[in-house]
Amino acid sequence: MSGELQETRRKPVDSEKITINLGYVDLGHVDLLVQEGFYSNRTDFIRTAIRSQLDRHGEAVRQSVARHRLDLGLRRYDRHELERVQAAGETLHIQVLGLVVIADDVPADLARETIASIHVLGALQADPAVKAALRDRIR
């Protein structure tokens, strides 16, 4: 099943909030750069630093994505797609670097019957009942 796949690094469809602990001196350096106008705020600095590191390791990431056969970006599964998988007597092994969305119209029993495994490096968005039904298949 090829489905929808989009590159989301440059144009995020959604985002995940993270929390980091940073030493006071490092935080002071960040605030100084913001104050001096190099960055609009702390978040802008952190995003820029993360993108810089991802670019720096870009080739290693590309090789790893290929080696692990990961879809890159956004992958969305809705009821219609999972019903087609079910009708074909198949199951899905979902492997994504990015965001996996299991639509709200997917019942937990259909998800459990059609999704054999989920490996997400990034985020999984699904109804809590669907996540509970797939708990033992999510890694």
Describe the structure using short key phrases.
alpha/beta; 139 residues; 43% helix; 6 helices
Write the layout of secondary structure elements.
Elements: E1 5-6, H1 24-35, H2 42-56, H3 58-68, E2 71-77, H4 79-87, E3 92-102, H5 108-114, E4 115-125, H6 128-133
Task: Characterise this structure.
With 139 residues, the chain is of the alpha/beta class. The protein has 6 helices and 4 strands. Strands 1-2-3-4 form a 4-stranded mixed beta sheet, with helices on one face.
Order of strands in the sheet with most strands: 1-2-3-4
* Percentage of residues in strands: 15-25%
Largest sheet: 4 strands, mixed
Cα radius of gyration in angstroms:
19 Å
Class by alpha and beta content: alpha/beta
- In N-to-C order, the SSE pattern is EHHHEHEHEH
Secondary structure tally, helices: 6
**Poorly predicted residue ranges:** 5-12
Mean pLDDT: 90
> What's the β-strand tally?
4
Overall 3D shape: elongated
